[in-house]
Amino acid sequence: MIGAEEASSTGSFGAAGSLSEARYYHAATLLADGRVLVIGGIGPDGRLTSAEAWDPATSSFSPAGDLADARSDHTASPLPDGRVLVVGGQGLELNLTTAELWDPGTSSFTPGGELAEGRAFHTATNLPDGRVLIVGGQDTGGSSLASGELWDPAVGMFGSTGSMATGRYAHTATLLPDGRVLVTGGDGPGGGPFATAEVWDPVTGTFSAAGSMTTRRLSHTASPLPDGRVLIAGGVGGAEGQDFDSMAPLRTAEIWDGRSGMFESTGSMAADLTEHTASVLPDGRILMVGYQPNADLWDPATAAFSPTGAPTDPRYNHTATTLADGRVLVVGGGGATPDAPLATAEMWGD
After folding, report:
1. pTM to 2 decimals?
2. Structural domains present in the chain
């Protein structure tokens, strides 16, 4: 084991405005001007088309256009030109093939191409050359996908790229310093939660095996570390093929080392975390926020977790966005009452 828990750390939460529409299973993206764009999700009456932008100057939200397709469990990727690419997700009836582009100049959405396969619970990874890699997810019938697709800003369209050995959703995808993308865990028919990992290579456009985690997990987080390693934390674990409802939340964490291609345990959080967020701070620490009495900080200097502050509203399936000044904006999510999403936002800071 690399590290163990340490004493309480500094850090606290404070109010940061309220959404006009409560939501969870939404997406949030930091914009070039410092605002945070919140898109779609599920509200009290179903899936949403609305978007809202949080302004750091006023600590408040304002309308930011409407999607053509209501969606949840989608991805939203900031592009080099300031636009935001919104991909897939669950629609009103089926998982969506559509993508939309949000323009900061007009605060409006326009078509952004069509996926070859409708998908939700997938991942989207910004590549150094401006393309966006879409991996896995669930198709319109709920089956796990092994395929990957690449969105190219030069043509505004998707093209195919390799397929994983294992179809998976509720997994993670992390950009590595050398341009490759590490995919870990997730679920799939008959086999999940998975311990396996795969790496996508931008030169060949193919996936290859990248070791196995010490614990099978899905709905976990994966965060890049300053030295190129990746911290895997929390999620839900269980035996191969185990029903999701009988799986157990995890508080364990592990690190993948690209030099050895292996995973090694690294301490535990103060509470079980699943459907949580992991925010990388400018100093390399990682803030974990989920449905628990306090948040956790992982410190790369000690390879240990320590509690930091207590959110006013415990929440899950929210978003957490790291701002340029190192604070973290936490928005929406599910609350204590089932199927009653939150409208509140909170700011964490040292």
Report:
1. 0.95
2. 25-276 (2.120.10.80)
